[in-house]
Fold these 2 entries.
Entry 1:
Amino acid sequence: MNYWNGEHHEGRGASFTLTNPATGEVTGEYRLATAADVDDAVAAAKAAYPAFKSLTPGERADLLLNLADELEARSEELASLESQQTGKSIRLATDFDVPGSIDNTRFFAGAARQLTGLSAGTYWERSTSMTRREPLGVIGSIAPWNYPLQMAAWKILPAVAAGNTIVLKTSEMTPGTSLIFAEAATAAGFPPGVINVITGDGREAGERLVSHPDVVMSSFTGSTQVGRRIMELAAAKGARVHLELGGKAPLVVFADADIEAAARGAVAGSLINGGQDCTAATRAIVAAEHFEAFTDRVAELMAGVRIGDPSAPATDMGSLISPTHRDRVAGMVDRAREAGARIRTGGEVPTVDHLGEDLPGDRETTAFFAPTLITGIDTDAEVWRDEIFGPVLVAVPFDTDDEAIALANDTPYGLAASAWTQSTNRALRAAADIEAGCVWINEHIPIVSDMPHGGYKASGFGKDMSQYSFDEYTQIKHVFIDQHEDPHHEWQDTVFTT
């Protein structure tokens, strides 16, 4: 269940069982990657780097276009496997995850040919200066389990478009689509060793990848706690890092907002991927005069969300990633309830689907949790402060615009936010004053390949997607060409005069 140098390799570690979290069904078993497996994958990437970085941007673009075609040809397989391993609805995988990854591939095919620097010019007498944007070398990336295919694409594509080679560690729980991605790259003509995937846990495989002396840059998406550990490991060898960490996105509904649009945006924005999304709307901050109407409508819409078998096209929301994670989400909601919060809808493990039929599996082996709206909490509550990473939205009222902005920023995180208003001035103020890497106006969630994605504060630093992502995977070199004909250069007189 590893892929390096254009071939599959069995891991040398402990056995790991793959389970469908929506049915409890065992879907496979494999052996985890060890530090020795990581070493082999890095060695393959290092060997492939000199030749790959020498390709022209156009040659790399052609490979990426071929890769997009290969992924498109396997789109049904990718969507089915993504749904099976994560528990997400097949509709989300088919309409969002897979086409988004293919579009991202085609974007970077074009972007590979736009890696420009400053134009050449004279900045010192009788000389010409120019800049070169060059790849770094072997990249070590770690992707999470919530969007396995998309996160593989976000990390692999800008790295190889810029001329790097890469070893990606995918989550041990969701290895399938990342391995297909690597297979598709080989079929597309990528040389062996350019794109490599390992499947192992963070403690052994992940730490070895980040600390490996031949890995010159590490990219990680996941929790802030693990991100700090990665910074420590990278700092020990003086390597750079790119981190996209946790989020606690506010959804601010101003007094002049379209309440129906805001309520629908809040439900979609909080429940996408079962809320297992760092950019998901988690804190609704609503003008007091509309608070009751807004929360009533959100509760009504959430109660109508169709929970059930992820493979059924009519299902809106499948399961969470695992029973262990479901219990963590349920525990946070239970503690809020015990502290006096009002659970407007949800807050429990459902037992039947939207048709009234029993959900597959049982509580011990499946990971369903109902869409949940919580009100009546203080802003020092756990559900307000900490990332829940589940289908839970917490709502509080506000009286003034200043208070709304302060509540939006009342978090250590800063990945994404949205503001709902019909006022241009309010929209511009929210965009400027909310501390987040992305601020949507009258929408929440849309992400496009052409625009950057990344956080402020404890949500990390650096950008995925867009031309800005190349800043993470390239280095700038100044080339100075002297044009004096006289061997004596005037500035040298400051050092010696003979």
Entry 2:
Amino acid sequence: MEQFIHYFLHLIFPGILSYFLFKENWIRCYAILLLTMLVDLDHLLATPIFDPCRCSINFHPLHSWFAIAIYFILLFFKPTRVVAVGLLLHMATDGLDCFLSQNNCG
């Protein structure tokens, strides 16, 4: 169920959000929200690249609290607002994963 929630929040929910928040250009906004998943490229810096028991929040550089603060600031500027929404949604999803995985990893 955790994987379903994770992929729903990364792939389907951004489409729903785009449709309701950015109705005029929802397809373009949905594409931008999907592209913000490139933030996961920082996982390539970790060894191992994937660890199901590792919380990515504040472990990977683009998932750090400092980076999240910058993403939050980007919300206040219209040209970067959609990107900021995508990045913050991604961080919220990964944060939820941290919470949910605590039960499976001890």
